[in-house]
Design goal:
The complex is a heterodimer. By secondary structure, chain A is of the alpha/beta class. Chain A contains eight helices and nine strands. In chain A, a hairpin with a 2-residue loop joins β1 and β2. The N and C termini of chain A lie far apart (53 Å). Chain B is mainly alpha-helical. Chain B is 79% helix and 0% strand. Chain B is flat. The chains are: A alpha/beta, B mainly alpha. The interface between A and B is medium-sized, with 19 and 20 residues.
Chain lengths: 258, 262
């Protein structure tokens, strides 16, 4: 059993030369109707890092993610996703709702868009999220947390250089969220992709990310590195950091950390 | 759901729905025997059974049923096929929707049976007329439900599939068509009901064979028992068509929580 696990580990490492993609965003603007959502936002993300974007609802954090993924087009500015040695880096999105195809089995959902030769990878990813035994079930038979795990497996089966997570845990209960945090952290470690997590939950951001960015009124209001050892414990340093970020979000003009 | 407490009440649950039909049949038979009901108005149930047996034994019943079923099915294939195609095209391509949909919605409001005088003028009273009537009847339910089904596929799923690299045919095959399928099958069930209604009328107007012809012919000779056999045959065929559509739903929509076999 141990030997087999090790073997799978080696195979994954050998098959997926992912080092993550670097993202450069320069002065992007986006307007919906009369509302200016992003006003000249500039941001650099280093390859392989885990960045969390937090902010009130409507601050433009989801729009930022949709612009990076190419689901929306910016009115102005530049977005570049680059991975070393790859002409076209892969970007994949994990949505708030799992968006599984209800008419495909769990396995076929994970294998969506994979070449026939790569379908074995879908099986491996399903095992990595702990749902190998549910491969033949319909998505309707899964719980909310299980559906998000399938969505995560589907995203990672594509071997993305950049994984964009759009409040993927927003609809889950507290215990399931903690499980999902550990799972996402572990998979990020093993697979080495760059992760960008959009969330309204500051605790979640600090638990997972190397760097937390607060967006306010379409620009970056706060950008701090998180140097806590992983896996992160909810200790005094954690709480202090959480408090200072929350203060910034709730009282934008107080300049708490400036 | 309430479960029967024991086998006796389980048997009751099976038998109870049949009480009223059996009672009606028995009363009908009794009334006929007593001479209260003239055979010119309504033959006794046993006579209907006998007529069905005679017709089946002579092979006449099969011949007419075959002809009618073939007409119904060919009309369904032609009209349903065109309806599916038109629904797919207007559902998938915006310019075609703008071009065609308002015209089709207008034509839809014409009852196909209102076309009978024109159809006789165009096709005479041959097979073409029946095919045209059935096909134009089943076209619209399938067209409307296909179009509506494609339009109401979850936009989030399409967005997801696009961002996972699905384009062109795989996007239709894996996302749009399966998403529209529940609605298309609703259209099919409507179309099957309509198919028999139109065929009955078309066959009673003019035909040299088919169940409608058999029924009309029986009227000429006041064979009320044969007329009733024809009417019951339509009911049976309609039920069979509905069962077939339900079977397709069970099979193609087995992923859907509402269609899971118990």
């Amino acid at each position: 059993m141990n030997a087999r696990l090790k073997l799978i580990g080696i195979e994954t490492a050998a098959q997926s030369p992912i080092a993550g993609a670097a993202v450069a965003i320069v002065g992007i603007r986006k307007r919906f109707g009369t509302r200016q959502v992003l006003r000249g936002l500039t941001l650099e993300i280093t390859a392989g890092s885990f960045v969390a974007v937090v902010g009130r609802s409507g601050c433009g954090k989801s729009t930022l993610l949709r612009l990076i993924s190419g689901l929306e087009v910016a009115d102005a500015g530049l977005i570049e996703v680059q991975a070393s040695g790859k002409p076209a880096p892969q970007t994949r999105v994990m949505f708030q709702d799992a968006r599984l195809l209800p008419w495909k089995s769990v396995f076929n959902n994970v294998a969506l868009g994979l070449k026939p030769s790569a379908r074995e990878r879908a099986r491996m990813m399903l095992a990595e999220v702990g749902l190998a035994d549910r491969a033949t079930d319909w998505p309707a038979q899964l719980s909310g947390g299980q559906r998000q795990r399938v969505a995560l497996a589907r995203a990672l089966a594509q071997q993305p250089d950049l994984l964009l997570l759009d409040e993927p845990l927003g609809a889950l209960d507290a215990l399931t969220r903690i499980e999902m945090h550990a799972l996402i952290e572990r998979l990020w470690h093993t697979h080495g992709f760059t992760a960008l997590l959009v969330t309204h939950d500051v605790t979640e951001a600090i638990a997972l990310a190397d760097r937390v960015i607060v967006i306010e009124d379409g620009t970056i209001a706060l950008d701090i590195a998180v140097h806590l050892p992983r896996p992160r414990k909810r200790d005094v340093t954690f709480s202090a950091l959480e408090q200072s970020i929350l203060t910034q979000i709730l009282n934008p003009n107080s300049q708490a950390l400036a | 759901m309430r479960l029967p407490a024991n086998t006796a009440s389980a048997a009751m649950a099976v038998l109870l729905p049949w009480c009223v039909p059996v009672l009606i049949l028995a009363t009908w038979q009794f009334a006929s025997n007593q001479g209260w009901l003239s055979t010119r108005i309504l033959p006794e149930p046993l006579a209907v059974l006998r007529a069905a047996w005679t017709l089946a034994a002579s092979g006449e019943l099969w011949k007419h049923t075959q002809v009618s079923a073939l007409r119904a099915l060919s009309g369904l294939v032609v009209g349903g096929g065109l309806g599916l195609l038109a629904g797919l095209l207007t559902g998938l391509f915006r310019p075609l929707e703008i071009l065609l949909d308002s015209t089709l919605q207008m034509v839809r409001n014409i009852p196909p049976l209102a076309l009978i005088p024109l159809v006789i003028l165009w096709f005479g009273i041959e097979e073409g007329a029946k095919l045209f009537l059935v096909a134009s009847g089943v076209f619209f339910p399938i067209y409307i439900n296909t179009y509506h089904g494609i339009r109401s596929v979850d936009a989030g799923l399409i967005e997801m599939a696009c961002s996972y690299g699905l384009r062109g045919w795989p996007l239709y095959r894996d996302v749009i068509l399966p998403g529209a399928l529940p609605s298309i099958l609703v259209g099919l069930r409507y179309a099957l009901g309509l198919m028999w209604v139109i065929l009955i009328v078309a066959e009673t107007i003019s035909a040299q064979s088919g169940i409608g012809y058999m029924t009309m012919n029986a009227r000429e000779f006041l064979q009320t028992d044969v007329m009733l056999v024809g009417i019951l045959l339509y009911a049976l065929l309609g039920k069979l068509a509905d069962l077939a559509a339900k079977g397709l739903e069970r099979r193609w929509l087995r992923w859907h929580p509402s269609y899971q076999a118990p």
